Amino acid sequence: MCKKRHGVIHPYFGCKAALATMHGKNLAISPSFHKILQVSIQIPEEINTDDLGTFTGEIERKGTPLETLRKKARIGMEHLGFKYGLASEGSFGPYVYLPFVAQDHEMLLWVDDERGIEIVEQKISTETNYGSKTVSTWNDLEDFLEKALFPSHALIVRPNSGLIAGLTFKGIKNTNELQQAIMRCASASTDGLALVQTDMRAHMNPARMKVISELAEKMACRLASLCPACSCPGWGIVDYVLGLPCEECGFKTKQIVQEVYGCADCDYKYAAPRGDGVTKSSPAYCDVCNP
Ligand SMILES: [Zn+2]
Ligand SMILES: [Zn+2]
Fold first, then answer.
1. Which end of the chain is more exposed for a tag (fewer CB within 10 A), N or C?
2. DUF6671 domain location, by residue (predicted)?
3. Centroid of ligand 1 to alpha carbon of 284 (angstroms)
């Protein structure tokens, strides 16, 4: 939990922020914002964030994740007429360090039009069920269902040969529905296979909800920190200095030695030793000891 400043009322205290979501992400985000900042998260009605792209590919995602986040945050802020807004995006793929393991990369954007600032926080987690499998019949699916955490986590089924109108089944949470969907998609697919994918939409995926809620706490703590120079919210790590010395030979490795704290508004910055207390690098990362 982050440190609170005693005796100082935070500028966001009692404010409202917009969150454009169709997928119940407020359940993961609201508690930390309420507890840490006393900010209330409001959801605009009648919005369609799927216009900005879907995981299943019916609508292609355009632009960088940050551009999509900005558009999403604006949709919510404009609908509700709020100065503050939030948006969340996730992307899934192989884990950078272990390609056989899947990762969930979550991003959260805070927009503050009162001060003209934005803050991005991110979290990469391997606690995800992300995966897919092509099958011709239901019988080939058993080991996948366990890894996919079915039925507590939903599945999506479509023909493997490509998208066919009316044949993308989302949010499948029971065996009967799943069997039906596989039969219909496999027989419609030119190769006779159905593609079974994990449904990564937040309200269908408790593992993803958990990562979003951890990220929301990180963001709320970041926003709770005020710049020591100008008191703007969102004081936090903005950069890293590399060069952690090797514990064998003292050579400067490419590991992080200092964290640079900065403000979202003014230019004030300072570098501090790593927050995890690590002061020496393992020789495994040293170009001299382990070239
Ligand atoms: Zn060394
Ligand atoms: Zn500042």
1. C
2. 73-291
3. 8
Spacing, Cα 116 to ligand 2 middle (Å): 13
Neighbours of 266 (CB within 10 A): 12
CB contact set of 147 (below 8 Å; sequence gap of 6+):
129, 131
Single-letter residue type at 281: S
CB 115 within 8 A of CB 265: yes
Q: Are 270 and 258 in contact (CB under 8 A)?
A: no
What's the gap in Å between 225 CA and the centre of ligand 2?
11
Per-domain residue ranges of the chain: 16-125+202-224, 132-198, 238-285
Identity at 201, one-letter amino acid code = R
Order of strands, sheet of 155-159, starting from the edge strand that comes earlier in the sequence: 132-135, 194-198, 155-159, 169-172
Within 13 Å and on the Cβ side, how many CA atoms surround 7? 0
Q: How far apart are the first and last CA of the chain?
A: 40
- In whole angstroms, give the CA distance from residue 37 to residue 245: 38
Which of 123, 129, 122, 142 is closest to 101 using CA atoms? Answer: 129
Say how many residues make up the chain.
291
Q: How far is the CA of 241 from the centre of ligand 1 (A)?
A: 18
The low-confidence residues of the chain, meaning pLDDT below 50, are 1
Given this model, what pLDDT does residue 176 score? 96
State the ligand closest to the CA atom of 284.
Answer: 1
Cα–ligand 1 centroid distance for 250 (angstroms): 6
Around Cβ 94, how many Cβ atoms within 10 Å?
A: 12
The CATH code belonging to domain 132-198 is 3.30.1490.20
